[in-house]
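Fig. S4 source data, part A: sequence.
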Amino acid sequence: MVYISPGEISSKIKLHYPDRTVALFGPPGIGKSEQVRITAQNLAKELGLEFIEYSDRIQPDKLKNVFVFCDLRLYETNQEDFFIPRMTNGEVEYKYQKFVRILEKHPGILFIDEVTNTIRPDVQSILFKLLLDKKIGFIKLNPGVQVVCAGNPPEYSDIAQELVTPILNRVAVYNVKPPKVEEWINYEKSRGRKHTLLFSYLLRYRDDFIKIPKRGSTLESYPTPRSWSFLLELFNNNGHRVKEPDIIAFIGAEIGSKFYKFLEITVPELEEIINDLQELG
């Protein structure tokens, strides 16, 4: 099987924008959703439009020259989240949700996350038309709207299931592999986040960067690029206040305790300290 890295997601979405739906499948916590959001922001900038993330507080009549990013979690969705049938003068009419009307008028990305997690039959029928024709009910989405899906393969989730063949035949499918440790470190540094010992630990113990539980369900956290990012953010915001239970809260007991002991006994090299001070100015 051929894989792409999270860093390639943006170029693949843009390659097919706006006509073709893109589906991204890979392990949880490797950056699929974040890269889709970043791509939407970049597309808005390239098109000279204002990036807007959809919320129910948006007033449609005040939108002008915008690029709308709408994030739907499919496992939370049913038919009424798209449209509601109602009887008017003896005839059935459909009342469409606000996001549908907005995406009818404005370009953007409709991001359908967790697409492999428990698709209801009524939602699946909506998905067929959406992926093939970019239509929800009888509403045709704006020509500048692209649909992007993401999900976890069944081996990573007890509730995930494979999609039926006719759905996959309608989209450009990419399998996404986790980023390399170096790629993740460079990405975090580009965001202004750093922690010399955390980076050193992952470069030394690369197998601890991502460990998906063998079972699809668990009550304990586990290390993924996403959970390491959460931990890095915690260190950047709280420094020495971060203790062992706080580390375990993000990456689990096995790796969390191992990393905490590493922090206690490891001293950064003098060159690393000097480099950090130079970067801080």
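Fig. S4 source data, part B ends here. The chain has eleven helices and eleven strands.
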